[in-house]
Amino acid sequence: MRQRLAILGSTGSIGRQTLGVVDHLPDRFEVVALAAGHNAELLQEQVDRYRPRLVSVADGCDPRTIQAPEVLSGAEGLEAVATMPEADIVVVATSGHSAIRPTLEAIRRGKTIALANKEAIVCAGEILVGEARRRGVEIRPVDSEHSAVWQCLSVRHQESEVDRVTLTASGGPFRDTPAAELATVTVEQAMAHPTWRMGSKVTVDSATLMNKGLEVIEAHWLFDLPYERIDTVIHPQSIVHALVSFADGSVVAHLAVPDMRLPIQYALTYPERPPAPHLRLDIAALGRLEFSPPDPERFPALELARAAGEAGSTYPTVLSSADEVAVAAFIAGRLGFTGIVDVVRAVLDRHQPAPGPLTLEAIAEADAWARREAETLIAATAR
Which residue ranges does the record assign to the 1-deoxy-D-xylulose 5-phosphate reductoisomerase N-terminal domain (predicted)? Predict the structure, then answer.
């Protein structure tokens, strides 16, 4: 039987590449539901091609512009797609915090989760992973580094035998730039990622290494590891995506060309590995593979994110929300590049988490507060 997919964020980069995997393996998958933002034209093309039974559009997009059996909108529509009874796998390919509740509801209904959304695990990992464990639901990582860790851990082992996990980072466009020169870098320079082609927010986060800091928090929840056993290294070639070190001193690494279709396909077809049309890795042609520790002076976002993760509660939410506002301000020309981390640090310093256990309501309140606080700081900086 074909696996039935519901895709949140179908018109984004990960969503489009997920549908590319479906095109490559049409006998294995059926698309039963799609949720997208405001790109109605592309969404209609997807509806015409894949014939989903349920479609959802973002608030502000007229559902009547989409011709499909059932069209919903907003948070209600996103949750309906995530919980569609016919869906076997829910691909969470949206960005931002709006995916948290739909992901939780999909878990509660026993759906397998193919997760590409960082914010869901960064902000609500305690809730989502805890619920998934209680219900025996798989959360399959789509992010290339976490997929690599997942695959390395597939080597037969006992939990006590895993010593540590190492995530790799390309270092972005500024891996060799002196820290003193970073204050004057332009948006164009920050967007010139040497390896990956991504959206503007993720590309800027990769330039500051905030992206890698968020991935450390994700790894903590996805693989149940303490932060002191999660390392990061700069690896400019982006060929080794992660390494797992075992207690006996051996290290298992995952190598692949930087192509997101590979981790997407693995998340959808696990535990099988059907042939893929992607580029094959030519080991002989690689030449040298380089690794070095990240420079904390050049990349302060990395330790800032780690500290927020260790603090727990709603600190990761504040980190993520303040960073989103600060990155948007940098792209708009309202904030300097190094000001991104300065704003995020200042907002974290002012945060007072609500007492008690972590809840979706506390996350939402911290999110809104952090955005307001970050905007206030950015406005003050501009004066």
Answer: 5-125
Q: Is 118 annotated as a binding residue?
A: yes
45 is in an annotated binding site: no
Q: In what order do the strands lie in the sheet with 89-92?
A: 71-73, 54-57, 29-35, 3-8, 89-92, 112-115, 139-141
Residues 6+ apart with CB under 8 A from 299: 208, 209
Q: Is 224 annotated as a binding residue?
A: no
The reply, when asked if residue 12 is annotated as ligand binding, is yes
- Using CA atoms, how far apart are residues 284 and 286, in angstroms rounded to an integer? 6
Which residue range forms the structural domain that includes residue 178?
A: 143-300
The reply, when asked if residue 154 is annotated as ligand binding, is no
Report the share of the chain in percent with pLDDT over 90: 87
**According to the annotation, is 201 in a ligand binding site?**
no
Q: What pLDDT is recorded for position 193? A: 74
172 labelled binding-site residue:
no
- 235 phi/psi in degrees, rounded to 5: -140, 90
The answer to the question of whether 287 is labelled as a binding residue is: no
The model's pLDDT over 77-105, given as tens digits with 9 standing for 90+, comes to: 999 999 999 999 999 999 888 999 999 99
Q: Is 144 annotated as a binding residue?
A: yes
CA distance 268 to 289: 30
Residues 164 and 242 in one domain: yes
39 labeled part of a ligand binding site:
yes
At residue 364, the 3 state secondary structure works out as: helix
Q: Compute the distance between CA of residue 179 and CA of residue 156 in angstroms, rounded to an integer.
A: 43
Residue 157 annotated as binding site: no
CA distance linking residue 337 with residue 327, whole number of Å: 8
Return the DSSP state at 292: B
- Let me know if residue 44 belongs to a domain: yes
| Rounded distance between C-alpha atoms, residue 161 and residue 110, angstroms | 30
Q: Using CA atoms, how far apart are residues 192 and 187, in angstroms rounded to an integer?
A: 9
Whether residue 14 is annotated as binding a ligand: the answer is yes
Q: Based on the fold, state whether residues 83 and 136 are members of the same structural domain.
A: yes
The DSSP bridge pattern shows strands 3-8 and 89-92 to be: parallel
Closest CA to 279 of 260, 292, 295: 260
Is 130 labeled as ligand-binding?
A: no
Which residue, of 280, 300, 320, is where some domain finishes?
300
pLDDT, tens only, 27-74: 999 999 999 998 999 999 999 999 999 999 999 888 899 999 999 999
Q: 310 a known binding residue?
A: no
The verdict on whether residue 13 carries a ligand-binding annotation is yes
